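Input sequence (89 aa), recorded before submission:
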Amino acid sequence: MKADACVQSVCETNPIQFWRNVSKISNQKATCHVNKIGDAIGSDEICTMWYEHFRSLYNTVIDNASRDIFGSACDAVSDACNTVGVTGY
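Predicted structure, token format:
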């Protein structure tokens, strides 16, 4: 019945009423933020899930030279941020 009302508002060439009906029918509790991915629920578990995923993905090939270069670059950025007083990470 709700779908019929939406169709009727389109047939009457009333797009404003159509979108009002869609808004009323849609789930008002829906958010634009994901709160569940697979078995991970909540921001902490989702963050941990992605951390573990990419950690295993990027650590599949042993390359100590690249790891050392990356670590040095991270240290340099960290030192530069500390020099200018940037915090929050």
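Checked by second reader. The radius of gyration is 25 Å.
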